[in-house]
């Protein structure tokens, strides 16, 4: 019997053929499934999981952008109407080169000037004039100015002006003299929180203080937030803004005031004599009274604390000292 006619060999050949067909059928099924999965993945990447079309890098970079929705960019009002509305909503800010230039020339109290970093032309002239007058200048990007002003017409410059007018240190001393009282002045060294300033003004009015002295740099000024926090006391407490706090202290000392600073390692406040002409210095949040100001003071007052926290809020510390001064001055 030849191998060709052997039934066992025929059976084996048939089994091999069936296995090959089965193998190739399974392989084709796997490849088809893989192609379908790849196709679905591409479709999903193109449309996004939520059916939102995804954009490529080139589409993101060169496709036209949608109009911005915030006021000033997508507004049907005319330019003049937008400027009037902005002025009504932001009474403490003036924008544009000519308005800021005139404000600086007129001597109006300006808290801070925002200037575009790469500004040219008259902006440099405004900067020079502002530096001559000792005004604070902050250089920012155009995007920051767009965000702050809410308008494209700022011309690379904006300024924060004071909501309320300031007085001189001599005006505070004159107010005390007119009332026939020993001067009682609060000096705030680098206070930056408007709520703290408003609270201190409220307490100062309650204890009969004659005025507050603040520095012109690195400190909060008289803003609308301060006015609200003061609960109306801003209308009655004179505030003097000085370029040099130590010079203001020397001026008060020449007028006969004793100056005490609230700081650590000092005499406990209730043991100190706080009668007569007096000025109290309270430091800013975090850093407290600066070294130079402390050295110009006559004495240091400390508030004893036994808890885990090592310091009080600036307005709370000021309130404690002011009421102790009020108690001693009233002879209670």
Radius of gyration, Cα only, in angstroms? 37 Å
Q: The CATH topology of the largest domain is what?
A: Alpha/beta knot
Given this structure, which CATH class of the largest domain is correct? Answer: Alpha Beta
What's the number of helices?
12
What would CATH call the homologous superfamily of the largest domain? Answer: SPOUT methyltransferase, trefoil knot domain
Named CATH architecture of the largest domain:
3-Layer(aba) Sandwich
Query: By helix and strand content, what is the structural category?
Result: alpha/beta
Strand content: 15-25%
Query: What oligomeric state is this?
Result: single chain
What is the 3D form? elongated
Mean pLDDT, nearest integer?
A: 80
Largest sheet strand order: 7-6-5-9-8-10
Please describe the biggest sheet, giving its number of strands, its sense, and whether it closes into a barrel.
6 strands, parallel
- Order of helical and strand elements: HHHEHEHEHEHEHEHEHEEHEH
Q: Note the gap between the termini.
A: 136 Å
Number of strands: 10
Assign a percent range to the helix content. 40-55%
pLDDT < 50 runs, ≥5 residues: 48-55, 57-73
Tell me the count of domains: 2
Question: What keyword list fits this structure?
Answer:
single chain, 332 residues, alpha/beta, 60s Ribosomal Protein L30, Chain: A, Alpha/beta knot, 2 domains, 6-stranded parallel β-sheet, 4-stranded mixed β-sheet, 17% strand
SSE blueprint and pairings:
Blueprint: H1 7-47, H2 57-62, H3 79-89, E1 93-95, H4 97-105, E2 110-116, H5 122-132, E3 137-140, H6 142-149, E4 157-161, H7 169-178, E5 184-189, H8 194-207, E6 211-215, H9 224-229, E7 239-242, H10 245-254, E8 258-268, E9 278-283, H11 291-296, E10 299-302, H12 314-329
Parallel strand pairs: 2-3, 5-6, 5-9, 6-7, 8-9, 8-10
Antiparallel strand pairs: 1-4, 2-4
């Amino acid at each position: 019997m030849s191998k060709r006619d052997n039934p066992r060999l025929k059976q084996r050949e048939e089994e091999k053929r069936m296995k090959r067909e089965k193998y190739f059928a399974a392989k084709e099924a796997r490849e088809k499934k893989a192609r379908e999965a790849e196709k679905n993945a591409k479709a999903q990447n193109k449309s996004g999981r939520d059916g939102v079309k995804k954009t490529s890098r080139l589409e993101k970079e060169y496709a036209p952008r949608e109009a911005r929705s915030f006021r000033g960019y997508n507004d049907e009002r005319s330019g003049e109407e937008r400027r009037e509305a902005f002025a009504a909503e932001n009474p403490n800010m003036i924008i544009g080169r000519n308005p800021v230039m005139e404000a600086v020339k007129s001597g109006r109290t300006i808290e801070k000037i925002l200037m575009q970093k790469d500004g040219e032309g008259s902006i440099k002239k405004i900067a020079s004039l502002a530096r001559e007058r000792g005004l604070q200048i902050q250089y920012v990007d155009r995007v920051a100015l767009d965000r702050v002003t809410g308008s494209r017409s700022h011309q690379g410059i904006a300024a924060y002006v004071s909501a309320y007018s300031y007085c001189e240190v001599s005006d505070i001393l004159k107010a005390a003299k007119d009332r026939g009282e020993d001067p009682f002045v609060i000096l705030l060294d680098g206070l930056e929180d408007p709520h703290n300033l408003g609270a201190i003004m409220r307490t100062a009015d309650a204890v009969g203080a004659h005025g507050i002295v603040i520095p012109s740099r690195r400190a909060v000024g008289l803003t609308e937030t301060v006015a609200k926090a003061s609960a109306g006391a801003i209308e009655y407490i004179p505030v003097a803004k000085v370029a040099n706090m130590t010079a203001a202290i020397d001026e008060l000392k020449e007028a006969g005031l004793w100056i005490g600073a609230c700081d650590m390692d000092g005499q406990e406040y209730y043991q100190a004599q706080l009668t007569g002409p007096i000025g109290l210095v309270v430091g800013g949040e975090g850093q407290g009274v600066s070294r130079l100001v402390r050295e110009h003071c006559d004495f240091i007052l400390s508030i004893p604390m036994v808890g885990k926290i090592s310091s009080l809020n600036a307005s709370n510390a000021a309130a404690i000292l002011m009421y102790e001064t009020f108690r001693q001055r009233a002879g209670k």
